[in-house]
Design goal:
There is one protein chain. The protein is α+β, with helices and mostly antiparallel strands and 352 residues long. The protein folds into two domains: 229 residues, 3-Layer(aba) Sandwich (Rossmann fold); 106 residues, Beta Barrel (OB fold (Dihydrolipoamide Acetyltransferase, E2P)). It is built from nine helices and 19 strands. It has a six-stranded mixed sheet, sandwiched between helices. Helix 3 packs across helix 4. The longest helix has 18 residues. The chain is elongated, with a radius of gyration of 24 Å. The chain binds adenosine-5'-diphosphate and magnesium ion. Adenosine-5'-diphosphate binds next to helix 1.
Length: 352
Amino acid sequence: MAPVNIQSIQKRYGQVKVIHDISVDIADGEFVVLVGPSGCGKSTLLRMIAGLEEVSDGEIHIGRREVSHLPARDRDIAMVFQNYALYPHMTVAENMGFALKLKKANASEIAAKVQKAAAILGLENLLDRLPRQLSGGQRQRVAMGRALVRDPQVFLFDEPLSNLDAKLRVQMRGEIKSMHQRVGTTTIYVTHDQVEAMTMADKIVVLHGGLIEQVGAPLELYDRPANLFVAGFIGSPSMNFIDGRIEEGVFRSDKGLILPLPEGFPIAEYGGHPLVYGIRPEHIRAAAVGLPARVGIVEGTGSEIYAKLDCGGEEISCLFRERLNIRFGDKIEIGIDPASIHLFDKASGKRL
Ligand SMILES: Nc1ncnc2c1ncn2[C@@H]1O[C@H](COP(=O)(O)OP(=O)(O)O)[C@@H](O)[C@H]1O
Ligand SMILES: [Mg+2]
């Protein structure tokens, strides 16, 4: 195990800069998730940490060592990819032990380490099988086992669950987390899926266009997103954004909807200033007396109801956890808890 320190890292491909200037401190044993939309530079950053891609500028430290220019094999990391790339003609045990064999470890040491990793991952009964005799989830576990036997300072994962179906993804998410809890190795995990980030991370780094938008614990990002990008990215369904401004002590949307403000909001300071009002779908409730709204599409999953409402000309998504009997075209009233309102500066996108 070791801390990882990423200092002012940049990456250029020819004239094109894809990582602008990224610094992150990762504590020893921490589980950090790099999350962001496709193309934001997650894989590039991870591959630079792994030594599979040259850094254009900046420094990477693993423990006390600067590794920025060391070859991958000297960095003491193990990486798990989306494509597990198991050797088809080798058994599970041979796949898992192969890296140690290349390092000329002796057979009994290899067998012991493979056994130990297999026990952690529940693969003991599958060690003699070939990859084609395994399910997708089992193959994923073998790929993790291969990383685990190397007992590296740092695990790197690049979208390792993308090839699995939804149910298996949820299960494997839990297994990776529980493996981390057992072995405690510093882990850097890349995904585009904010739910994976929220459920797995000690610390989330939100990337966008080769820059960091925010770093924080999952609930910090959910409760206090630093800007419109993070507010819209973290949380599903996405936060509602309503453009408007403060007039005569209230928030008035561009379409004329009047909404409550959080207690203690410095109204005088932002009077007339273009703002964006943010409210998460799950923070809107049906109320006996509230803002009048007309129901648009309604989707129920049993555990919750997702609905789009027209509220004073603004389209607002809501997620109700109670069983409401609502249908397209119904008139209802909604309430917003002032404590769950987010306000952003429209020009800069920054949280106020
Ligand atoms: N070898 C390369 N040459 C040129 N551009 C690249 C290369 N690899 C990646 N890129 C570009 O760098 C950006 C970030 O890519 P990547 O790190 O793969 O994104 P992510 O993993 O977040 O989806 C993308 O715009 C991509 O097109
Ligand atoms: Mg990628």
